[in-house]
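Structure first, sequence second, as always.
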């Protein structure tokens, strides 16, 4: 058998944890800046001293900001720290506005009944706060009627003027002429 060097085991957070914070002995800096509620006098300490303080309080030394000079650490319960981070991420995700885009398709020779039917749907979509992507699809040789398609979309935008504003004017992309409308902000 070969004589292999012994492997060093490091104290890292479990792999299934999302956080990338170093804790306790896995902190490699010689000095750390301690902050938080558990410290009487926050400041810069040797890592060994900070670890000793954490053990006395039966908590973990968690690296909060590893890129700072010296790295910023807190003495807290690591599981509680992970829970609070997940909670913050959930709150941030809940606050983001989800934009819904509804598509309405026309042909270049759409008759008035179909047009009015789609217009009512567009009004409902805009009132619900969704964006509307209206497009005229040209099949085969119907691309010859692209002016007709543009007129149709401009008329559509004009009739939706009080419900939404045009975000993108009619533009030909391949076999489609596309126009985007976004809802007007609701008045309180």
């Amino acid at each position: 058998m070969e004589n292999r060097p012994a492997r060093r085991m490091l104290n890292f957070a479990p792999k299934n944890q999302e956080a990338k914070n170093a804790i306790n002995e896995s902190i490699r800096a010689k000095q750390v800046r301690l902050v938080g509620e558990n410290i009487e006098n926050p400041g810069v300490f040797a890592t060994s001293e900070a670890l000793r303080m954490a053990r006395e309080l039966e908590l973990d030394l968690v690296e909060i900001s590893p890129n700072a000079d010296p790295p910023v650490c807190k003495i807290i319960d690591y599981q509680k720290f992970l829970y609070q981070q997940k909670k913050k991420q959930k709150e941030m995700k809940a606050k983001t506005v989800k934009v819904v885009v509804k598509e309405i398709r026309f042909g270049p020779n759409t008759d008035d009944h179909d047009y009015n039917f789609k217009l009512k749907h567009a009004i409902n979509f805009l009132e619900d706060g969704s964006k509307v992507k209206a497009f005229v699809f040209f099949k085969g040789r119907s691309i010859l009627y692209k002016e007709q398609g543009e007129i149709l979309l401009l008329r559509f935008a004009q009739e939706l003027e009080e419900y939404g504003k045009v975000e993108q004017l009619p533009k030909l992309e391949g076999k489609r002429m596309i126009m985007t409308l976004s809802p007007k902000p609701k008045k309180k």
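Margin note: Residues 13 and 20 are 8 Å apart (CA to CA).
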